[in-house]
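[step 3/7] fold_predict: job queued, chain A
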Amino acid sequence: MTKAIIVGATMFAILSIFMTSSAFAANPNNGHLDLTSSTFSGNSATITTAGSVNGGHPGAYGYGIIADNGIVAVTTHAGGDDSARQANANQPSFHVHLVQVGGATLVQCPSGAPLIVTGIADLGANLKIKNNSVQLTNIDTVSSGTLTGPTVAFLLSFEAGGVCVTPTDLI
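[step 4/7] structure written:
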């Protein structure tokens, strides 16, 4: 329980710092990374964006909700086969992870992305993407813990052997 509280507080602190700084990337014009609302309760969540969630496809991006044990992240990317939902490493399909992030150094993220993935696991959940909505049901809350928020949109980049994360919006 103490570990979950520490991890959750750390994630919240990291994202809070970026919310009040200039660390956020500029949002693309199509609105897929502009968050308009987020609701979550129990093992379900809905994230709504200003534009089509598929607007950035086939890029590397996603959405996450802070939970007790990390971030429940919905991502799409090519370049790594890290989910049963992907047919192969080059198929950018949406899938769900439980991730932990930490501060990145310029050595880890040459682009200057402020965060790097420090832990990742497949997370059980039903996922539905429709227009400007991401819906998660049956989230494995035994693994993730309670969804606490906030919700973040982000870009991913694969650099120097790691996965770098640049937040774009936070609500």
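[step 5/7] annotate
The beta strands are 35-41, 44-49, 61-67, 70-76, 95-103, 115-122, 126-130, 133-137, 147-159, 162-170.
The chain is about 15% helix and 45% strand.
exit 0
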